[in-house]
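Entry for the shared binder. Reason: the reviewer on the internal report wants the predicted structure included alongside the sequence.
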Amino acid sequence: MSPSPLPSRSPAPRSVRGRFHGHHIGSYGLPVLAALLFLVFSLVLPETFPTRDNVSSILSNQSIPAILALGATLPIATGRFDLSLGYGLGLAHVMVMRLIVDEGWPWPLACLVVVCAGAVAGALNGVIVEFGQIDSFIATLGTGSMMYAVTGWITGGSRIVPGPSGLPASFTGLYDSRFLGLPVPAFYVLAVAAVLWLLLERLPLGRYLYVIGSNPRAAGILGIPTRTYSVFAFAGSGLIVGFAGVLLAAQQQTGNPSVGLDYLLPAFVGALLGSTTIRAGRPNALGTLVAVAVLAIGLAGIGQLGAQFWATPLFNGGTLLLAVGLAGYSARRRLRTGERQPPLEHVPPTS
């Protein structure tokens, strides 16, 4: 009696294979793009682009936009947007200069006060949005305009310039120093990203924020105090903005009332584009870092190719449209495939 033939393994359904490949493309396509951009610019500009000085310059120049993008990630995780980020950055760096130069405060105390004030301002944004029931776009645009008015009032419309002795070297060293041969601000970015990764991916608070952003009704059913946690997200964002303002003051070494708004668009581009990679479909710290790297490499490359001044806003605006489009596509794709991020059964119950 001949043995019966072994059952042949049927190939995976096409929909499953397509979902598998689509998942990996969505998760790792942006890091691959960053590597390809660096390779292309290195081949086109072999004398200047793949050099240690250029890499250090990119890490230093993009540190503040990267930190601001990480700050924007927290409210976006809850489905809100904070348009006061740029105004808050300008106000924070002006306040640092005012306290150090005009009031004679020790720089560590001035920096601590400004960072804490940033958290308070962020919490006020959250209170206005959640308890005032005002759309986050409108509310933060209004508070941002008020921050800009306070900045103008503090400076009188002119710059705050240090005296002949300048600023303390220990303060400017917050931005100018190097560690392990790399600019210190790059390590600040990594530290902020690590804290946000731990918060969003490993702690219950991060799960709550994601559930609030994806399904507020389900969050209410689970007993999550949505308003309270949304205020926490805005406060955390304000804290990060205050820290970025301290670094901006150490970089600029003057108090310029018009600085800050130019950082708003890159911050949202980084946060929104970052939501399409690593943890595709939801804002995440590692994805934001990758998105900022793509922006930094692209801007540095086209700058060295001799692009005109208008190329930077064109690049940022086009990338923002691409980021929003990809984020929308990713969300629609998750709905079609029945994916849920994060699974509700993995959300720890509230007490």
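Summary line for the report: The first helix runs from residue 14 to 44.
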